[in-house]
Amino acid sequence: MSDMIRLQWTASQAKPAIAWADEKGVDKTAIISHDKANNPEQHDHKHISIETTMSPTGEHKDELFTRFEIPYDTDVADIRTHSSNFNVMDGILRIASKEDKDIQFAKNETNNVTTPLWTLRASSGEQGGNAGADFNIIRYDDQGKAMDSAVTINRQKGNVGIGTTQPESKLDVNGDRIRIRNSSTPESAHAPGNVGDIVWDDNYIYICVAKDSWKRTELKSW
């Protein structure tokens, strides 16, 4: 055992704190830990938090407000921020794990329950040779159940899949159509263009087969 500072709550809703006040004695920041919420109808808070005051000209003038909280009594702590922006200045925001590496967008329900809507994921399964850890954009239904990976990028080959997690070409679309919304007509067979450009108008489909060199095929009704 070593020396310690111990702040013990003496009632279930007590909130032991270390607070910093300005020259007028007004609390500005605090580190607080507590079990029960001030409002007994709320769920138990069970966290340690860093709190700072709200705007001196706002609706909740000079009130201490939780900005950062770490729950206790849980094997995996969902660390939360409130009314806060997170900025990385001249550094890297890194997610490292042997499992899937996720950034998730979710809707906030009551009692800090969240339901996922989208996940940006670098999958697990690194195998060497640049294989594994493919990038996925995953979408969820209203109940938070994953529906599919809308977009997948294969890390080894750089192939992009839409609606498929196993893209076999630079762009692999698991669907029955690709839409180019706007028509365009090259001014001539030698109009500016790059190899592989494809455009259309009411009468032809045009393909650029060499730098500034186009060919076309006629469109007919049936």
Strand order of the largest sheet: 6-7-8-9-10-11
Low-confidence stretches: none
Number of domains: 3
Report how far apart the termini are. 88 Å
* Helical percentage: under 10%
Q: Helix and strand string, N-terminal first? A: EEEEEEEEEEEEEE
Structural classification: mainly beta
- Global geometry: elongated
Radius of gyration: 28 Å
- How many H/I helices? 0
Largest sheet: 6 strands, mixed
Counting DSSP E segments of at least 2 residues, the number of strands comes to 14
Mean pLDDT across the residues is: 94
β-strand amount? 35-45%
Summary of the model, kept short:
This protein is an all-beta fold and about 220 residues long. It is built from no helices and 14 strands. A hairpin with a 5-residue loop joins strand 6 and strand 7.
Note down, in words, how this protein is organized.
The chain is an all-beta fold and 222 residues long. Helices cover 0% and strands 37% of the residues. The strands form three sheets. The protein has a six-stranded mixed sheet, with no helix packed on it. Strands 1-2-3-4-5 form a five-stranded antiparallel sheet, with no helix packed on it. A three-stranded antiparallel sheet has the order 12-13-14, with no helix packed on it. The chain is elongated, with a radius of gyration of 28 Å.
